[in-house]
Design goal:
Structural class: alpha/beta
Strand order of the largest sheet: 3-2-1-4-5-6-7
CATH architecture: 3-Layer(aba) Sandwich
CATH superfamily: NAD(P)-binding Rossmann-like Domain
CATH class: Alpha Beta
Radius of gyration: 18 Å
Strand content: 15-25%
Bound molecules: nicotinamide-adenine-dinucleotide
CATH topology: Rossmann fold
């Protein structure tokens, strides 16, 4: 049985076939071809099977976001399938899952490579979405340092003195900085490579979203997390579906004037920290 005979369908590429990424893809998948990339064959198979049982057409590719050639091959594969209209990057590791070096190479550099690679293949009118984090608002970086980060090529980010001296202190700091850098990378791409392709790109900075990654964080920092959530306006964690609603909006036509920006979706955690109602977990 062939479910869809339409030729030259638009392509959605998802790097990081996890909980949030899959929820976003489901909202925009109808009538489109999906390319899933992940380092875990098991995640790929599970996600592709779930999508297939829901009537969506997904192909998979093992991708290591720590490897530039692998990320570039993923973008080339997407382009070989048809016009690449959507790119979503959710590949990442949290502080409890990895050391500072791994977090910076994956969450910061790997994301930069993916933004760069898709900046070469996006179709005109296409849209991208990078999943950053509320933690990108927790470790303010001096303006001059942010300008240095914006000016740096992705390959030289790890050589910046601020990254070498400050970001390596511990995993939590590496994660906060990597996620702020994601927001800057999106801003830069929207003004340069993605602009040239007439494609938009934005980021979402989620608060605590209950996914496999968050379970690892709860186990490591449960009490601190609980206090942070209790002090927030929403007084709860959220689901991937709530991020996906906003993601679908940012990727869709109603957001055609929105590019280079970040949307913080955290139930009020950052508002509560910035106004002194709570302190960092
Ligand atoms: N869950 C939260 O509370 C939360 C909050 C803020 C931000 N985030 C960010 O959201 C993103 C998505 O996380 P999630 O919560 O959906 O978790 P998830 O664990 O469901 O998804 C992450 C995916 O990234 C993949 N991955 C890990 N290393 C990779 C690599 N080297 N190459 C390719 N793929 C790799 C994993 O296999 C996994 O499928 C992450 O970047 C995370 O930092 C999560």
């Amino acid at each position: 049985m062939i479910f869809d005979r339409n030729e030259n369908r638009e392509v959605i590429a998802l790097l990081g076939a996890g909980s949030m990424g899959t929820a976003i893809v489901r909202r925009i998948a109808a009538g489109r071809k999906i390319l899933l990339g992940d380092i875990s064959q098991e995640n790929l198979e599970r996600t592709a099977r779930d999508l297939a049982y829901s009537g969506y057409d997904a192909v998979t590719m093992v991708v290591n976001a720590l490897d530039k050639a692998s990320v570039e091959a993923f973008a080339d594969k997407a382009a070989s399938l048809g016009p690449v209209m959507y790119f979503i990057d959710t590949a990442g590791a949290s502080p409890s899952q990895a050391d500072p070096d791994h977090i910076l190479r994956l969450d910061m550099v790997g994301t930069g490579w993916a933004i760069d690679a898709f900046g070469r293949v996006m179709a005109r009118g296409g849209a991208g979405l990078v999943i950053s984090s509320q933690t990108g608002y927790m470790y303010p970086i001096p303006y001059e340092t942010e300008q240095e980060i914006l000016a740096a090529e992705t390959d030289s980010l790890m050589d910046l003195p601020f990254i070498r001296e400050t970001a390596y202190q511990r995993s939590g700091i590496a994660y906060m900085i990597a996620k702020r850098v994601n927001q800057l990378q999106v801003m830069k791409a929207a003004a340069t490579s993605w602009k040239e392709r007439r494609a938009r790109i934005n980021s979402i900075s989620p608060g605590i979203i209950v996914t496999p990654l968050a379970y690892d964080e709860f186990a490591a920092a449960g009490e601190g997390y609980q206090r942070m959530v209790d002090a927030s306006a929403a007084e709860r964690c959220a689901s991937s579906d709530e991020i996906a609603e906003a993601g679908a909006f940012l990727l869709g036509d109603h957001a055609s004037f929105i590019t280079g920006t970040d949307l913080l979706i955290d139930g009020g955690v950052i508002a509560s920290i910035r106004t002194g109602r709570s302190t960092l977990g």
